[in-house]
Amino acid sequence: MAGTRTGATTPDGVADRVDEVAQRGWDGLQPLLDQRIIDISGLTLTVGGLAAAAIAILLALGISILVRRGLDRYGRRENVNRPALYTVSRLVHYTLLALGVMFALELAGVPISRFAVFAGAIGLGLGFGLQAIFSNFISGLILLFDKSLKVGDFIELEDDVRGTVRDINIRATRITTNDNIDILVPNSEFVTGRVVNWTHRDVRRRLRVPFGVAYGVDKELVKKAALEAARNVPFTLANDGPYRPQVWLVGFGDSAVEYILAVWLTEDATRRNAAIKAAYLWELDTQLKAHCIEIPFPQRDLHLRSVFGMSGSDALELLRGGRGATGDTRPGARPDLGDAPRPPELSAAEKLELSDNDASRETSEPPVGQDPSGGPDDPAAPDTDDPPAAR
Questions:
Q1: Angle at the Cα of 231 (from 226 to 236), degrees rounded to 5?
Q2: Phi, psi torsion values for 218, nearest 5 degrees
Q3: Which residues form the Mechanosensitive ion channel transmembrane helices 2/3 domain (predicted)?
């Protein structure tokens, strides 16, 4: 007689066993999940409801991350409009997050219809502490829909901050400068302030490089040298047609004739203003020197019109206290003023008054060795009759 096997289990038996264990575990967790945390005016929040809400929010965030990664991979593989794809990615993220929050509230036991109870508290919070955050959030949505500012644009702010837009987030926009410095700018500044977008519709831009040459240099020679400099720089967009380089004479300065080299730049050069301008100045200096064109420095010329009727070198020698026109080099010799006007002669009364003033000054001075107050000589003073060696 064949023996029978004991202890063998069937697949149906395993499934029943798993269901039994799961039911026992659920029965054990049920009292904990049903425990109330908040019970106010018919609003009941339990541990299980809050756990379900947290899971719903995490699930929404996970789906949003997966969708954004998929869109990013699609943008790398296909030739699509990256700024538009970025806008779609952001909108999908905000939509999934909003749906996740609404679903989480339902799971937590907070009906959306009764959510108006918290509207007053939320409005009060926006009026005080959250006003700036709410303004930046709305401004970020405006930027995404308005398309006046896109990821990849090269912009310039009011405080001379220049850089490329990298991210448009809920609170702020990240801008990376050419020095690889990240700057976070609140979104509201882009809506209320002035922003210069260098690549909004057309990435081509014209650069103006001012320079000056000495007076007397042929204008055509200056133009030839400047155009050669523009052709030698690889960032020049075109050498012919409507975007060709141009040389403008813009003014006559104190020390130089002022010119401007106007050049249309390529797309890559548009975002590197300082480095590109330095490259054109470098090449301008090279070409001007190659064509023997003088680059002047600030200078002043002194013209002597007349000094006591003299002019030229005689007037300059007179100002220096030199020999003058007579050539007399003796000490105290006065230069010959030639026909220059002399000062008027004094009258007899004026001469007498001057002599009286000189006499009064002489009588007012005390004798040598006498105290100015009129007293006797200081006994401590040395005897002036002694020879110098005895003092």
A1: 105
A2: -65, 130
A3: 93-131
pTM over cut 0.90 = no
CATH number (3.40.50.11460, 3.30.160.20, 3.40.50.2300, 2.30.30.60) of 131-197 reads 2.30.30.60
Residue 17, C-beta contacts closer than 8 angstroms, at least 6 positions apart: 9
CATH: 3.30.70.100, 3.30.1450.10, 3.90.180.10, 2.170.270.10. Which one for 205-290? 3.30.70.100
Query: What is the predicted pLDDT for the residue at 384?
Result: 47
Per DSSP, 158 falls in state: T
Q: Which two tokens stand for residue 69?
A: 């990664």
Confidence at residue 242, expressed as pLDDT on a 0 to 100 scale: 86
Residue 41 has pLDDT above 60, yes or no: yes
Name the token pair of 325. Answer: 């026109």
Which residues partner with 262 through β-bridges? 208, 246
Contacts of 152 (CB under 8 A, 6+ apart): 82, 83, 164, 165, 199
pLDDT at 291 over 90: yes
Domain locations along the chain: 43-128, 131-197, 205-290, 302-335
Task: Decide if 190 contacts 143 (C-beta within 8 A).
Answer: yes
Tokens 């036991």 sit on residue: 109
Coil/strand/helix, residue 21: helix
Q: What is the mean pLDDT of the chain?
A: 75
One-letter amino acid of 59:
L
Q: Which has more pLDDT, 97 or 125?
A: 97
The CA distance from 229 to 267, in Å, is 20
The answer to whether the Cα torsion of 255, 257, 258, 263 is positive or negative is negative
> Which architecture characterizes domain 43-128 according to CATH?
Orthogonal Bundle (1.10)
Please give the Cα distance from 26 to 117 (Å, whole number): 34
Report CA dihedral (106, 108, 109, 112) to the nearest 10 degrees: -40
Measuring CA to CA, how many Å separate 275 from each of 6, 118, 195, 340? 87, 55, 22, 62
Residue 280 has pLDDT above 60, yes or no: yes
Which of 72-76, 252-256, 330-334 has the highest mean predicted lDDT (pLDDT)?
Answer: 252-256
**Confidence band for 390, pLDDT divided at 50, 70 and 90:** very low
Residue 287 tokens, joined = 């070409």
